[in-house]
Amino acid sequence: MNFDAVAPIYQLMERVVFGHKLQLARCAHLPASLAVLAGGESAKILVIGDGDGRFAAQLAEEIVSRGIDEIVRVDVVELSQGMCAELRHRLASYPFCRVHCADVRDWRESDYQLVFCHFVLDLYRGSEFDQWIEILDHLVQSAGYLVVTDFENHPDGGIFATCLLRVMYQFFHYSAGIPVGQLEGRIASMDGLNAELVGEFSQLNGFVQSRLWRKI
Ligand SMILES: C[S@@+](CC[C@H](N)C(=O)[O-])C[C@H]1O[C@@H](n2cnc3c(N)ncnc32)[C@H](O)[C@@H]1O
């Protein structure tokens, strides 16, 4: 899997197809999730596969506006070199954000209070998805929060959403080498994750879902 070729046009493509709706979904749980850091002495936040960094930049802005940038560290772990270049450019003025060009499945640090994972898990199926559940369980500290945003084959999405999903995954199959195949619907329940669902945000008739999980 390699998103380098898509990196320079990723934002434009998204804007043309979805307008601002995906960014709204990514940021839906920002206020609630950042609120849990209030009053703490220090906090570690992880953003997984943030692509071109629009979410991480918004997160950084929120952290600054809440005046908690002195106590927070944000690790952004992204696989694609092209996306990392975009990320470094966007996050240059936020010294508390560090960009790491790496596969998060090899990431050794754990116990994050907050972990964000937007539009990444839908790229993984079968046993690879099982591995992600274990990894996420390890990355989020107990009583910490995980936000997962993804596309879903929702029954209310209709024929348009089903066709759009097919076209999108075919495009990313050829441009970035993601596996083809139906979505498995496992993101909705995150079975095996030691966490309870505490917040849900839905866009485009359920086609895009963002969920806030609290680790038990
Ligand atoms: C479909 S893009 C989504 C980008 C962004 N999160 C968003 O909300 O638009 C998936 C991104 O996840 C990254 N990615 C996929 N697997 C990863 C992994 N194992 N570790 C780190 N990044 C990963 C890809 O390089 C790509 O930039």
UniProtKB/TrEMBL annotation:
A Pfam family it matches: Methyltransf_25
GO BP annotations, alphabetical order: methylation
Domain Methyltransferase: 45-136
InterPro entries noted in UniProt: Methyltransf_25 (IPR041698), SAM-dependent_MTases_sf (IPR029063)
Range of residues in the leader sequence: none
Naturally occurring in which organism (per UniProt): Persicirhabdus sediminis
SUPFAM superfamilies named in the record: S-adenosyl-L-methionine-dependent methyltransferases
Protein name per the record: Class I SAM-dependent methyltransferase
GO molecular function: methyltransferase activity
Keywords: Methyltransferase, Transferase
Presence of the UniProt keyword Lyase in the record: no
